[in-house]
């Protein structure tokens, strides 16, 4: 039997929080649901306290200074508090489906596997949120990878090195990871990233840990799409999006250098970072820098972002 700690970062989620918790707490595999509240301005803290008082599996924490520290630091605190052998994550406006741990029951029978992930679906909670999401993204019912993979193939696929398209990413809500693997590799969320810290974490996890795809043809969790989703708000402003992506890929490049990744991996990460850096240049300076970078690194054309993404 799995013993899973479900970590839910909570910030201004009063409308959705109870559904998220209820979707997780009933599983026999779930040892505890950890609510980490990040200085909400709505009734989320009261709801957390109420839920914790009603079920001993639900535990409530806040940062020691009661301040707002962002999703990365909030999830990190959840990891520190977790007592289960396995860690999963759930955003407070999302929820698990009944098949959430079906793949895990089989995959973790093999001790070489340290993590498993699956597909996530969409639930449009508001009409405005639906319109914003469909304007920014393809109206796909699933966010998932294209084929089953394990080990280094996943890391290579996420960076776009495989001969066929693997997929942009898998969602954090579908990940189950052994806590021992996080501790052994000193893996935590980058607290300096206010957005994209989940993507940053997933790339590093895929490099350091032996992962396997689970259920990828149907959802194991659902994303709630509503008026206040952060990612659609950021993408409304291309310059802000490019800036956040630049910071994210710079974080990955610094990590790649520190961990002495192969030149092939390091170069690809650098070029993704550079493509967003170049996208923020203006006028003649922009095209001069693009030309200089292309002469130095023609492989920049192999990145899916290139330098004119969201120009």
TrEMBL record:
Which SUPFAM superfamilies does this UniProt record tie to the protein? Nucleotide-diphospho-sugar transferases
Name the InterPro entries for this protein: Glyco_trans_2-like (IPR001173), Nucleotide-diphossugar_trans (IPR029044)
All copies of the Glycosyltransferase 2-like domain together span: 5-135
Q: Which Gene3D superfamilies match?
A: Spore Coat Polysaccharide Biosynthesis Protein SpsA, Chain A (3.90.550.10)
Write the protein's name.
Answer: Glycosyltransferase family 2 protein
